[in-house]
Amino acid sequence: MMERHKRQGKAMTASTALAVLALCGVGCQSSHTAGPKPVQYQEIALIQLESGFVPAEVTLVKGQPARLHITNAFGATSTFTISALGINADLRHAELTQITLAAEQMESLDGKKFACIETGNSGTFRVAAGGEETHALQTSGAVELAVVMTDDLAAPHLLVVKKDVPLKLYVTKTRGEEEDDTIDIPDWGIKRDVEAGKVTEITYTPATAGDVVFMGTVTPSSRGVIRVID
Asked: Which of 4, 6, 33, 46 is deepest in the core (most CB within 10 A)?
């Protein structure tokens, strides 16, 4: 009799353990699937020159947060401001300053200015509906875009342009372990030196749709994609 109770106790212990494991599995699975989705930012580079900002007009996607990557390529420390949001930030020569704009701020920025307090130079935000086409609305004249290269990354990592529309690309390097670099765009046969705190201008008219990779030859992790759309 005592032996039978021992066997029943072991069976109940095993059953209880299986039930606990099953509940834990369900709970773990539920917790995993309910995790927050990563935030998708619109990445935009701005370079401050003595003559003004490039690009001078920035298109923001409605309802999508944005991250501005800004650098000063003309020398003296200056103050970048978005007066509509009460934002002021120091821009030091050849250093990267990042400013994050929340999704709910987008609509209030349509037509508003960003500026340099010391020089009085300014640019304009405009807000458009979603979709990658909003990055390539211009269909005539040269499209001006900027890329900031660091030792670790290129910002932005994705540029969207239209086929057969001339592209003027302004590229600069921030000060780091590597002062100078070379931007390489193999599919376009372009390779140009880039110096820290200075700007390299590249002009090209893409004739074929598709993704084109660019990268730093000295800092290969500083890379991105130029997406050419019809």
From this structure: 46
